[in-house]
Write a structure and sequence with these properties.
Strand content: under 5%
Number of helices: 12
Helix content: over 70%
CATH architecture: Orthogonal Bundle
Radius of gyration: 26 Å
CATH topology: MetI-like fold
Structural class: mainly alpha
Order of helices and strands: HHHHHHHHHHHH
CATH superfamily: MetI-like
Length: 303
């Protein structure tokens, strides 16, 4: 009996070590991945902050220098000049600031609307929840770029029509995320305790549900900023966004179409690269944020 017991226990002992080693290796890889994401996000955000610092040279939106028309990149103009002789680096920096401002304001507008709609639907439940979500599904069936073009076409070109257009067409995903989080929170024990203690529905929503959904709503807002910037660029490229003389990434790309067909690549390349920079920076920041607010997911990766 003793010999048999020893013989059965010995084969199981070597198997425990590889299992623990694999678990430890997975944990180390997940920690290393998180550190890489944090480092990449910090580098990208630092580069973005440097680009957003007000430049020493002020931009004259109406300036024209036809003698320096379409000069290639060089010492005098690192990014070259555009089709009317304006410095492309300076216009890209100002264009990034304008596009990022439009994207942030539009993303905040859409997040506030989506959070209010999603929290209301999830807190009320029943027929009100079903009616609100059917409305969300109906609006989601329409391509939001097409709907945004319809909204912005009713106003004169400018910043606020673009903000309103993007904000009114991008709150649907936030509403769905917030509603799902509210429905999850409603089944938690502390919510049941608050309801049993006599708390009203409004008090439960304000004191317990909204603080619980704010991290997810904030993450949705961060991810929405580059998406809003791309929509602003698309609307400006179509001639429905900002005025043509205003430096934004969309107007820069739109004005460079003829130059690209003629063989001048720099008026299109550099504004496009500046459009990618905030996308990478905010995507890295959102990845780190997601890891921080989702401990359950992080613990599953470490198993």
């Amino acid at each position: 009996m003793a010999d048999g017991t020893v013989e059965k226990a010995n084969p199981a002992e070597p198997a425990a070590a590889p299992t623990a080693w694999r678990s430890h290796g997975t944990a180390r890889r997940s920690t290393h991945t998180l550190r890489l994401r944090v480092s990449a996000a910090l580098v990208a955000v630092t580069v973005l902050a440097v680009l957003l610092v007000p430049p020493l040279v002020q931009l004259d939106q109406q300036a024209v220098d036809l003698a320096a028309k379409l000069e290639p990149p060089g010492w005098a103009h690192p990014f070259g000049t555009d089709d009317v002789g304006r410095d492309l680096l300076l216009r890209c920096v100002y264009g990034l600031r304008v596009s990022l401002l439009v994207g942030v304001v539009a993303a905040l507008t859409a997040t506030v609307i989506g959070t209010a709609v999603g929290a209301t639907a999830g807190a009320l439940g029943g027929w009100a929840d079903r009616a609100v979500m059917r409305l969300v599904d109906t609006l989601a069936s329409v391509p939001h770029l097409l709907l945004g073009v319809f909204i912005v076409a009713m106003f004169r070109p400018g910043v606020w029509p673009v903000v309103v257009s993007v904000g009114l067409t991008h709150w649907l995903s936030t509403a769905r995320i917030v509603r799902a989080e509210v429905l999850s929170l409603r089944s938690r024990p502390h919510i049941d305790a608050a309801v049993s203690g006599g708390a009203s529905r409004w008090r439960v929503t304000v004191r317990h549900l909204l603080p619980g959904v704010l991290p997810q709503a904030g993450l949705a807002a961060v991810l929405m900023v580059p998406h809003a910037m791309w929509h602003e660029s698309a609307l400006s490229f179509l001639g429905l966004g900002l005025p043509a003389h205003t430096a934004s990434l969309g107007t820069l790309i739109q004005s460079a179409r003829g130059s690209l067909l003629a063989g001048q690549w720099w008026p299109t390349l550099f504004p496009g690269l500046f459009l990618i920079i905030p996308t990478l920076a905010l995507a890295g920041l959102a990845g780190v944020w997601r890891e921080r607010i989702s401990p359950r997911r992080r613990s599953e990766l470490m198993l």
